[in-house]
Amino acid sequence: MRAGDRDREVAVLVCAVVFVDTVFYAALAPLLPSLVTELHLSKPSAGLLTAALPLGTLAGSIPGGILAARRTPRFAVCAGLALLAVSCVAFGLLHTLSMLDAARFVQGLGGACSWAGGMTWLVNASGDGGRGTAVGTALGVAIVGALFGPAVGAIAAAVGRPIVFCSVAAASTILIFWARALPSSSVASVQGLREILTIARRRRVVAGMWLMLVPAVASGVLTVLAPLRLNDLGAGAGAIGATFLIAGALEAVITPAFGRLADRQGRLVPMRIGLCVATTLLLLLTLPGNALVYAAVLIATLASFGSFWAPATAMLSEAAEAAGLVRELGFGLVNLAWAAGLIIGAAGGGALAGIAGNGAALVAVAAVCGVTLAVLAAWRG
Questions:
Q1: Among 312, 232, 236, 316, which Cα is nearest to 278's?
Q2: Same fold, 1-190 and 194-381
């Protein structure tokens, strides 16, 4: 196989891996009401089940990067897919809350491994000059996977979890065999937690982690608050689902486009645009009293986050490498920042809204975006 054909196949494989991973991530939402009824879950218990996956990603972000660095990116991808397969089987067959929590947590661990290994493998194949484009394309495919996730969850609710989630496990197993058939050239590294703690204090690395964390926090806040607000305004489950579906489709288009822009104009330009738009729209979300208007502003807000993911991922991974960290651990930091932001946004946003109302939570996130924009406007890296 020629090098160019091999590199394209690696790109397709990595896109397939992140697609399958995000399908399972997003499949819970339609299942949650039936699980609440079946297992007699309280709201905190349902929240824990939802948060178990990003908690697993948070816990596995650094170990997943170390695994990819000390073995190979391909090995980390295969390990992540194996954990995904096991967790899917468990989620399909088990019927106790603790086991379902554990299955989601294990899937988060697997995702941390497969994303750190897969993104490293992808950038190795694409070259540094096309990093933003390659990462943006993979993230766009991941968002498409997140769009399919609710459909998979709805099918599971209709025909039963065992058939659907065991099918996802079978797809993961096929991807393992595909990955093992491809070469993965990488030099093993002994770097680990000590090097990460040293390099994570560098200014550009901190900036990259912050710029990855901010949109994740905003996304976490809206994931919790926006459906409740739409419901209060009279929107039904179908309308709420359609709103998030449209937003996700737009984000899937925007993400690779801004990855290409980041390759052409630099990492900061698209993020300045995104921060300006997101700050304005988050403030506008505090105003609408009509479900249709609120949904339209929400779609634009969620879609605007697509301007962050590829540039921030590229910037953070590049900054970590420039400081001496191996590429695999740089993508481990990306996983860490994303998962931490999602958890902070979901938990913190919900808590603040419970105390001071939804508007206060949205204004707080808009203020964070606005301050970040002001700093970034003057920063030259």
A1: 312
A2: yes
